[in-house]
Predict the structure.
Amino acid sequence: MAARLLTALFTALMIWAGTQGQGQSIIRDAEIERGLRELAAPILAEAGLPRSVRIVVVNDDSLNAFVADRRHIFIYSGLLMRLETPAEVQAVIAHEAAHLANGHLTTRAGAGSRASAGAALGLALALAVASTGNSEAGLGIAAGTQSAALRNFLSHTRAQEASADQSALRYMVSAGIDPQAMRDVLELFRGQEALSAGRQDPYLRTHPLTRDRLRSIEAFIAGRVGTSYASSPEAQYWYDRTLAKLSAFLRDPRWTLSQIGSQTDEISTLRRAIALHRRSAPSDALAAMSRLLGLRPNDAYYQELQGQILFESRQFSAAVAAYGRAVQLAPREALILAGYGRALLALETSGNDRTALDALERSYAQEPANPRMLRDLALAYARTGSPGMASSVTAERFALIGQLDTAAIHAERASGLLPSGSPGWQRAQDVLRAAQSAQN
């Protein structure tokens, strides 16, 4: 069904909410996503939301966070790297989770239902346009659309903001998280209302900040003076690890190395390994990884990072071994499976191609809307004698990156090569329907 394709598109979506017509990207990294899941878990539980709600990092220096559907909370990397404690990250997540729990997307859905079918499809595709990208920070999903329209789509009313604040504060207190962190986050945006719209951070343009909001938050906090909140060592660890990896991949490696100095703790060693890798010093980077793996030999994410460094240093056989160990430790991590498949394909032997196909199919089963994985999966199908399936997943990939005309060509080819009614044939029909709807 075309609707099924659009649902898959939403799982790969990227919102363009800035004021310039530039592309942005989504950072895909299994370790960062795990860390954010850990931080989000107590908030989602208190909000009555499923753990399947994903925290998605947008690679952008500005400060923003938003929700656009019921399954994703988007946070800009610029905001994440300005937050100084795990509680501040959890405060941002709590506020956005409150918009979901309080049904603030309902009015958007109503507005969307009043649009024409063609406009609705156009919006869905605009939300889902994706392409492969940055090998350093993971999979980049680029997107572009009209910023003014999307700002309106993402905007909340002042009443909704006040409601989300109060709900978020309750979630935090119930989870044992200091609500003062919410106040600290809003301090980042004080004074921006006096700036022109073009100079304000996107968060302020979609989340109106008022004195009444601040007073209400302060009153909530004042009403709980004397309440103690125990810091969570687990939350602190995942905050440190997540922000270390994000910063090391996004900031200049010389700055990272200067900040670390001679420190040898786990988090500093993680930052050092990434910075050295980015400076094209694979031997030194791998030496740092050996120290990390000595500390945590059964850590799937450190095994994966070692595999990435080896792969990008063109040490493909060693990369396969590292990724293979990561898969053993985390057999349901779609991004790790995709990396393992990619490394196996680099060996260019028939046996490894078949193993790659198995890994990539397992990745697809966990997360089908990953254009980079789909490209590798198409190659694996082609090498193992399944041209129809290669065309089918290629059609899905082009649909995800918004190139529906090209997607339709590959879907037509797949339809002629695959048995009618087979799963691959049905997915090709989904692409064709979506392409035809876009033309109407």
Notes: The two ends are 17 Å apart (CA to CA). Strands lie at 25-27, 54-59, 65-69, 72-76. Residues 1-23, 109-150 have pLDDT under 50 and may be disordered. Residues 29 and 138 are 5 Å apart (CA to CA).
